[in-house]
């Protein structure tokens, strides 16, 4: 994970786009550097106030991703964002006109309310500030107080309908339904040792226990067939069957519990692998950029090296110069000069 600097943050915000990968990658980086949360949010606020209207929604998607993903690591981002979000929603409500923007921000607020990200009273305040100019928080009608703009807005709504659909799809991809979200937020990437430990643990999971599976496969059929009860001839046979059934129930309950635990472990492992892969992709991009940069530096240094060699080859060899002293006596030393009377 690259080191945090404000310059690096500004560059990443400038390169941010509406793709899921772009938002996830930057969100992961911000959460990793959460100890700088105050400076990060201050820079984010300054930039969202200056970016074009079309990019403000992307900044809000990023904020949403960071707020929701960072909850398990600590409350820093959620609390810090709650201090500046009223100003952000006021800014958007006062300066923006896009139905698409207001509609999707309204959906973000709905998701925050459903998931309890912020208190209902706070979300109501966000909505009030966002709808200051009578924008619809769902973006269905997009009407404003000034009726003379209605025709223009209808035209703009038609021409941007495809874009609206794409952005709505992106919003659900990023946030989804509170219970059936197709997108699981990225968390902090695991350490390699932690990932290896989880992989080894899966190797010894319940589904890999061939001995228990064979015991289950070899259970007598009469313990699961009610019709076999009619074949019981005496009390001893019934007791024997009851013991077999009890043992089978205990065996299956234990194995089912192990399988359920394995499912949870595999879900956790899948998230770890996804987070680890996302980090490795980012590190790969950074390594490729760094390699390209150092290749260029190497070419420059090699060029300087060649110039130095060419220059040295053109310089005269002082050892080959003729003796210009003509056998003259050496000059007196400083001591000899002071001893002259």
Which short descriptors sum up this protein?
341 residues; RPRD1A/B_C; coiled coil; Serine Threonine Protein Phosphatase 5, Tetratricopeptide repeat; RNA polymerase II complex binding; mainly alpha; CID domain-containing protein
Could you please describe the fold and organization of this structure?
- The chain is mainly alpha-helical.
- Among the domains are: 6-131, Serine Threonine Protein Phosphatase 5, Tetratricopeptide repeat, CATH 1.25.40.90; 192-298.
- 68% of the residues lie in helices and 0% in strands.
- The protein has 13 helices and no strands.
- The chain has helices spanning 6-15, 20-32, 37-50, 53-69, 76-95, 99-115, 120-130, 150-159, 161-174, 192-203, 210-217, 235-314, 334-339.
- α5 runs parallel beside α7, α6 (99-115) packs parallel to α9 and α10 packs antiparallel against α12 (235-314).
- The protein is flat, with a radius of gyration of 36 Å.
- The termini are far apart.
- One of its GO terms (molecular function) is RNA polymerase II complex binding.
- Residues 1-134 form the CID domain.
- Residues 131-167 are annotated as: Disordered.
